[in-house]
């Protein structure tokens, strides 16, 4: 399949915005899907690690207005542990059963007539805890004498795999330089405007139990069988409904499924539907977060600065449980672990470690933020060792424009790109030499001014087969591999010629409806107002697969390809109907301007709706053999997304975009305040489908990155107590995201998608933290300070600059 550079040349305004701006959004708290719904409150552990010696629910059950109270006994009696990605003896339930393993872990649920009664009764639940020693640091958790979280496991290591591709030792033996670095990436979250919300209804039917649930879940739908497994029902008996509007997710709402199971069980005991809406403190304590990672990198480097081989030792702190879809963060970027560079050989050790922190999951750019922070800081260190400018070091190692499709040693296949040209655009737009002159002048004045760069590959359209890499090849069951990047869509035409487009991607504000409307209108030659996109999800009626959902930048490459294919099928039927009315062969007509017209005689035409009406009202008039079908589904399944090979190689994403990014920072010598002054960014997202939405995605990713790089960190004390409010978890506001931005784009269409589009929603969330760290390190280089971790703010910088050891690394 070849790409086309044709695109929907339509207005760029988002069609989602009028309802949101006028208070007509349809969020879950706006909906009351079932009569008689009760409200739940969750009782949570105040301890990071403790044995549950007893739970007394009698007083809470007697409280006026209470319909049901459930605790560990009810959970263990009815629910099964969630199926894990690995056969690791670390069972995970939606509440603690034998122990609690993180502050905020659910222990009991109170269901009452309203939230006030439920929370009052929750205070009457009595729990007898036996506190146990906690461990929150991943390196400490690796030690043989560390507190054991799961007694059935041999250690706190949930998975430990080593991979090798190419002659790694040979390259290191002949290397002119061996450059090493240890880097740590912090745990931070997504903090969407809308927290978790669930309405669940347990239904006991003659043919067995089932669950109906409404949730602001964004997918991936690989969690549906996980949820069904815990409930002990077939996946077909779990019906999930997602409202049209979702107040943000950035990946975090994939972690809602334990609460769907928990509220379904509460509904079973209450005998009525149950609603639960998470408050902000609950979200901070116990929803999810991106994993914090410790990384050790070594590079074998030639005399002229070419990186020949890489060793990486990655340790992810996944929190108290290996909660599905973990250990995804370790493997999502497996195919692009060498980044944008021509590195021939790689050895990787990947470990996931459990600690007494909240379980981790998806967070915008998951896996990429961690990888690129370590890899890009290593590249800066290599530049210093080789005496090269950081830009020049990267230029010498970038994949060349003639090398595409480029195969990485780990199995990734980069589909298209021109990395050198994008880098040139970045330097020109930034006026790089002028910035270096400005830096020289600033240093002469005793000021701290730095410039940082990052060049990264932006993976999109994830191939879920990467999850199987956590299992050794010899233990994978033959014939039961995992692969795929499928997306489904359904398009239909009613008897008035109005086209409905049913999407399965579950957007969270990205503008999927706007793009879908434009793509289908372009395919069928219709005005925009004749196409009606539908983004509400109902797993009983909306087409979907286990890979469906809004994650890993899937919409642009996959869903739009499915839209094109469904539109082509519909177009053929409408052309036949129009040709019948015009009494010409179907191959002589085209769709344009809301009409079916003769290609060589455009004045001869019929309205699109009249042609559709013929199919609905008079199918007998159609030529023999023509189906009266104005309803098409398409499933775009790229053949390039294969299961992992027996040698553990995998093309972990279908498409690979590119980001070249530069940041400048200034540090006040007296106050130590860090100020991000300028960001220059160049993105290659393949074919640009909607410039406004692309810029919105870039701005959002930059803000997310600034949070993780300069402000946000889910800190835990050694005793396991976390930050829990915005008083001590600092999210950037408009005041903290004021900087000069120059955003530019380069289009190298993907040959693997129907419109040539790649994803673009995560790139800067992965690249800017590394660029900011590089800029701060550059600013502090005269003081002999290196930057090996995040976040960076005034307190950190003050400690660095005031430390007695000027060579100290953070």
From TrEMBL:
Q: Which residues form the signal peptide?
A: none
Task: Extract the InterPro entries matched here.
Answer: Ald_Oxase/Xan_DH_a/b, Ald_Oxase/Xan_DH_a/b_sf, Ald_Oxase/xanthine_DH-like, AldOxase/xan_DH_MoCoBD1, AldOxase/xan_DH_MoCoBD2, AldOxase/xan_DH_Mopterin-bd_sf
Keywords on record: Molybdenum, Oxidoreductase
Q: Which SUPFAM superfamilies match?
A: CO dehydrogenase molybdoprotein N-domain-like, Molybdenum cofactor-binding domain
Q: Record's Pfam families?
A: Ald_Xan_dh_C, MoCoBD_1, MoCoBD_2
Q: Where are the transmembrane segments?
A: none
Q: Where is the Aldehyde oxidase/xanthine dehydrogenase a/b hammerhead domain?
A: 22-133
This protein's name: Xanthine dehydrogenase family protein molybdopterin-binding subunit
Q: Which organism is it from?
A: Streptomyces asiaticus subsp. ignotus
Query: What does UniProt list as this organism's lineage?
Result: Bacteria, Bacillati, Actinomycetota, Actinomycetes, Kitasatosporales
